[in-house]
Write a structure and sequence with these properties.
alpha+beta; about 180 residues; globular; seven-stranded mixed beta sheet
Length: about 180
């Protein structure tokens, strides 16, 4: 599967995003009760933030998933761990579907990680999923993430995990 990425347009993409983030299967996105305007506002804030970015992942030119990345020195994890130079935080969301494709979500997270590591300044990706989100823990592990410890964030208990470029390449089967 081949994916491309484009910057998210908060107003143009809000309706699509709203359908994704309010779906019961997106419970860990914590926007279940959000109105369309709430989604627009949240992504307009991200678009205006120099330390947080949102991209749509496209498959055959059509929106297929959401990815966000952020600077953990300024967003999400401030004061919860000691960031290293080259750290980048990441979130991704594959929307619910009535016609799941085996291996699709793993292909998505692999593409997201490859996209992040395309930037030579990125040396390590950090994630902080909810401790109870076992499905994403397994996906993270499959692309090379190693859990470090549980941390208490304002909105959840999270599993702080890291993946270096080398760990990702090894998990992806790319020779060093």
């Amino acid at each position: 599967m081949t994916f491309t990425f484009r910057p998210l347009d908060p107003l143009h993409d809000a309706e699509l995003l709203h359908s994704w983030v309010t779906h019961p299967k997106a419970a860990y996105w914590m926007m279940q009760g959000a109105h369309l305007e709430d989604v627009e506002r949240a992504y307009m804030e991200i678009a205006a933030d120099e330390h947080h970015h949102a991209l749509l992942g496209l498959r055959d030119g059509e929106p297929a998933f959401l990815m966000e990345y952020y600077d953990p020195r300024h967003r999400e994890l401030v004061g919860l761990y000691e960031p290293l130079p080259g750290d980048i935080g990441m979130h991704f969301l594959v929307p619910a579907t009535d016609t799941p494709v085996h291996g699709f979500t793993r292909s998505v997270i692999t593409a997201v990680m490859a996209h992040l590591f395309d930037d030579p300044a990125t040396s390590r990706v950090v994630v902080e999923p909810d401790v109870s989100n076992k499905a994403v823990h397994a996906l993270n592990e499959a692309v090379g993430f190693v859990p470090e410890r549980e941390i208490q964030k304002p909105e959840k208990m999270a599993l702080l995990s890291f993946c270096t470029r080398e760990q990702f390449l090894k998990a992806a089967g790319v020779p060093a």
